[in-house]
Here is the input.
Amino acid sequence: MTISLIVAIGEKNEVGCGGNLLCRLPADMTHFKEITTGHPVVMGRKTFDSLPKGALPNRRNVVVSRQADLQIEGVEVYPSLDHAFIKLMDTDEVFIIGGAQIYEQTLACANKLYLTKIKASFPNADVFFPKINYSEWRVLSQESHLSDEKHPYAFTFVELER
Ligand SMILES: NC(=O)c1ccc[n+]([C@@H]2O[C@H](COP(=O)([O-])OP(=O)(O)OC[C@H]3O[C@@H](n4cnc5c(N)ncnc54)[C@H](OP(=O)(O)O)[C@@H]3O)[C@@H](O)[C@H]2O)c1
Here is the structure.
């Protein structure tokens, strides 16, 4: 099973602010959908709560929570990441989609990273991606985009593996 982390990060590894994403980048939403559709997505309960339309369509949605009685329609809820990974063992590629707590606990076992590196820093950010030791990773692809009327910042899609 390939464990892939997918995240949009600021220049200081910021990932979120007040329970929300750092900014709106429609091309990143499209990229996220293209890459994750058809694969299971694993997320923390807070990230699930931040999804505007609930469970993501055409993906097996897996949420981890320590709340013993939590049940969510259309979602598999597990009490730990270990439980989630055991249930997902038969899948080819699993996407860890956040948030910060879940990235922190899974970066060490990740085989792939799909980063959207936003060319800005966000002083109000309150959650961060763990430090990435880039020397461990090989860049598979990189695609840069300039800012425009729909995208307030420039950004680069980077795919890495180890
Ligand atoms: N930039 C990006 O690409 C991106 C992606 C995703 C999210 N985000 C942002 O990240 C922020 C949310 O991140 P966060 O770190 O605050 O929360 P989170 O990681 O999404 O969720 C944390 C929750 O997950 C559960 N949890 C964590 N570790 C667990 C474990 N080992 N076993 C069982 N349950 C566990 C707990 O839920 P209970 O409290 O229910 O027990 C915990 O409160 C938001 O601002 C969101 O917008 C950004």
The chain has four helices and ten strands.
